[in-house]
Amino acid sequence: MTTSRTPDQLDVDQPHPEHDRGLEFDLNTLMSRRTLGLFFGASGAVAALAACTPAGNTGSTSSATSTATASFSAASSGSATSSAAPTLTRAIAECGVEIPQETAGPYPGDGSNGPNVLEASGVVRRDITSSFGTASAKAEGVPLTFTLTLLDNANGCTPLAGAAVYAWHCDRDGKYSMYDSSLKSENYLRGVQQADANGQVTFTSIFPGAYSGRWPHIHFEVFQSMNNATAAGQVLAVSQIALPQAACDTVYATPGYERSITNMTRTTLKSDNVFGDDGGIYQLATMTGSAAAGYTAGLNVTI
């Protein structure tokens, strides 16, 4: 599945009211969001996951179903699970439902809506905490390491080794580098990684804040190859990671995240304009850790 990025598909992902794009923009957003999540209930999704287990898997169907059921139960509750970074075995067992396609938001930095960080030297990196190139600012906040496991649904849920992921998110104040008036010369919390043999990419960052109208999240785009990513080429998938409420509540009680406390009381996964159609069940990360030691998150991304 491929996705073309156009400015009129950007979501209402904005911390500042002056970026309101009007009725036509909102309608385009609603029409472009979610082509899959609307059709699968949790029970149907579990069946689909079990059916998609590759032929070489020696586990039983009931085992795969149990694994998927446990995963969806944790996702529905919004709580962290005991294993954050997904193993390849677990990812394959849960494979079957493609990641919901989302818009890139008004602050993608991929050339589709203003500045393009993908063609900048230095964007390929694991640690996205600091700006690079001629910029020097560093994003402060609770440490967060997140891993995406990419799987090819059309080829038996095999790992998408060699694919590339561009990830970006707001800082603890809910602001995006390259777009906010105070951060136009900065490019922190943006980076590209190439998937390893297991189809996995890992980024080191900080826990993003919550801003008005949105549930805490991380944006990402998946490209066929690193060459496509750094040339802002055709995209295989555009989606978002939803962060579990338990971790958000803990982090936002720490110094520096004061703005997020009020915003969290105004939005739920069900009311969020991106995750609301299914409560983020296919995009809710598993997470372990603490505010003191930092968090580790993981998400399986089937394409």
UniProtKB/TrEMBL annotation:
Protein name: 3,4-dioxygenase subunit beta
Annotated Intradiol ring-cleavage dioxygenases domain residues: 138-212
PANTHER family noted in UniProt: INTRADIOL RING-CLEAVAGE DIOXYGENASES DOMAIN-CONTAINING PROTEIN-RELATED, PTHR34315
Source taxon at top rank: Bacteria
Species this chain originates from: Arthrobacter liuii
Region of interest (Disordered), ranges: 1-21
Residue ranges that the Swiss-Prot or TrEMBL entry lists as coiled coil: none
One Pfam family hit: Dioxygenase_C
